[in-house]
Amino acid sequence: MDHSGHGMTMDLPPFTLGRGLEFSANPFFLIGCAVGLALYGWGVARLRRRGDAWPVSRTVFFTLGVLSVALMMCTKLNDYGMVMFSVHMVQHMVVSMLSPILLLLGAPVTLALRALPVAARGSKGPREVLLMLLHSRYMRIITHPAFTIPLFIASLYGFYFTPLFDTLMGSTVGHIVMMVHFLAVGLVFFWPIMGIDPGPHRPGYVMRMLELFAGMPFHAFFGIALMMASEPMIKAYANPPASLGIDALADQNAAGGIAWAFSEIPSVLVLIALVYQWYHSEQRQAVRKDRAADRDGDKELEAYNAYLASLGTRRQ
């Protein structure tokens, strides 16, 4: 069987994890991942050369994020994902919900702002362009919950339950565009929630949690819809190659189960990150208050004690 999406014979042997993890480079994502790691490494090296610190944990998170994209797109998981709905759903869930969280925990925008040189007065360099973008009306719109949450939901239902998915799966370029879209939507959705890099929206921690939970149930509903279907819903996966030895409906049910179960993973990861950030934010505020008290002799406490004393005097 020849699949037009790859322009290659897709008579793959039955899927196993070992076969899926074999190297099979997609040039676009291979180059993109290499460039991403190289630029991040350059930024960290530049900070270190001038004596500035950069948390090792952020470098580890960003590297894991890039490698997770490479794992999905530069192995035979990508080949099997063209003919198996279940494998494709693993790709989608990782690229749209796990990779963005790991990349954002690496704080790449903060690193860029610290590492890029300041342009000469009267001129604009990459750093100034980045700052203009961060403060632009466009960025305020695409990172607002009123935009990100519907976009996050539409990326599921709008792709899979319309002919758009089959159209994109019909060519290599279309498949790349779809995966880049999933990654971009994940980054835009989780960016305000993670709250590490600077951005137009900085909601409080409770609001961030509400934004997170506003989108997650729709993943579960989407997965349940696939599992409950009595016939294949996606044309691209309706007739899998005989060499795979799979049933299209069973494979679709598995894809639905993956979508349903995977919605819990980012929720847990983000909640852990938010609680960690919240705790350290409270700690930093406590330290600032202690330092301020040391500087002014704790005038706030003294004023409160004086107020209590005045109340006692009035009662007498």
**In order across it, which strands form the biggest sheet?**
1-2
Straight-line distance between termini: 97 Å
- Tell me roughly what share of residues is in helical segments: over 70%
Overall mean confidence score, pLDDT: 84
SS-based class: mainly alpha
Q: In terms of per-residue confidence, which ranges show pLDDT below 50 for 5 or more consecutive residues?
A: 1-9
Q: What's the order of the H and E elements?
A: EEHHHHHHHHHHHHHHH
**Major sheet, described briefly?**
2 strands, antiparallel
Our count of helices gives 15
Overall, the morphology is: globular
Number of β-strand runs: 2
**Beta-strand level of the residues, as a percent range?**
under 5%
Indicate the radius of gyration in whole angstroms. Answer: 25 Å
What structural keywords apply?
single chain; 316 residues; mainly alpha; two-stranded antiparallel ribbon; 2 strands; disordered N terminus
Strands, helices and their partners?
Elements: E1 2-3, E2 8-9, H1 17-20, H2 27-49, H3 56-73, H4 76-80, H5 85-105, H6 108-115, H7 126-134, H8 137-142, H9 145-160, H10 164-169, H11 172-194, H12 205-228, H13 248-262, H14 264-296, H15 299-315
Antiparallel strand pairs: 1-2
Helix pairs in contact: 2-3, 2-6, 3-5, 5-11, 5-13, 9-11, 9-12, 11-12, 12-13, 12-14
Describe this structure in words.
This protein has 15 helices and 2 strands. The protein has a two-stranded antiparallel ribbon. It has helices at residues 17-20, 27-49, 56-73, 76-80, 85-105, 108-115, 126-134, 137-142, 145-160, 164-169, 172-194, 205-228, 248-262, 264-296, 299-315; strands at 2-3, 8-9. The radius of gyration is 25 Å and the shape is globular.
